[in-house]
Amino acid sequence: MYFDGASHRSGAGPGVIFVSPEGDVLPYAFTLTQNCSNNEAEYQALILRLEMAVDAKYLELKVYGDSMLIINQLLDIYEVRKPELVPFNNYARRLIAWLGDVTLEHVPRGENRQADALAKLASTLALPDHETHVPICRSWVIPIFESEDNGEREVNVVSVLEIETEDWRQPFIDYLQHGKLPDDPHRRTDVKRRAPRFIYYKDTLYRRSFEGLFLHNARLRLEELEALDEKRLEAQQHLECYQARMSKSFNKKVRLRSFQKGDLVLAVRRPINTTHKIGGKFISKWDGPYVVQEVYSSGAYKLVAEDGLRVGPINGKFLKRYYH
């Protein structure tokens, strides 16, 4: 992520360039409604991108900026001496702590040209007082930071941070565990209406599904079913490989028999005929000879005996060549 900010008399604006691991480039330009210094615009550019990263739940973020002052202040190399920059520095540190894996690096201005151009463009888009700007897409709002004036003005930063870090699950946990409802009548009605969708079990808030299952347990069950399918496919692959090896080993000993029209062959005596023969085990198991009359592509043959009796079709595996 590359960030930059610009400020002049007509307005201020931050510019942000986000580059994904796949190489996708996402440019953002914002217009600030209040005049501020270049350093404040730089800080707000960084804060805007960090808030977007928090919303997107990024696991890793590398931040590049051409402001050595801001980068070194966040890395504790420089001390924040200007009071108006202290709230921005504290808020940026809090966002970085929420993200966890964030790398800050200073780059020369020449390597940050795109973000610098976006910042300058956004600062020039500041509208005069008599015009109105109507947003038609999502907007990011940075908390308004006010600096202390010789200790005479107090900034209620703690209350702002508490509102931002409020857990949406806590009202439901309080209601399900203790029967406690919020003071706001609208929120009280909303909690009572949505509470039957949840259940509090072993210090964890679960959401019910339409089948009555906990979505947490249903997710575990789906993972088990996916693992079972993987094991079944793995077993099927092993079976197919085993069958292929067995077939290859058997086919080494198989000799293909093919006959042409007019060849003399012997046919295996069928069991239905051997039951009516007398002679015991010394009776020949082959009948014939027969003459091959027709050859089929499926490996079957139609035979004709010497007396004109037609036999078949018979599979070639039940035939063998007859020699005079």
UniProtKB/TrEMBL annotation:
Q: Which residues form the RNase H type-1 domain?
A: 1-124
| MF terms in GO | nucleic acid binding; RNA-DNA hybrid ribonuclease activity
> What SUPFAM superfamilies does its record include?
Ribonuclease H-like
Q: Which domain of life is it from?
A: Eukaryota
The UniProt entry, under InterPro entries, shows:
RNaseH-like_sf (IPR012337), RNaseH_domain (IPR002156), RNaseH_sf (IPR036397)
Q: What is this protein called?
A: RNase H type-1 domain-containing protein
Query: What species is given as this protein's source?
Result: Rhododendron griersonianum
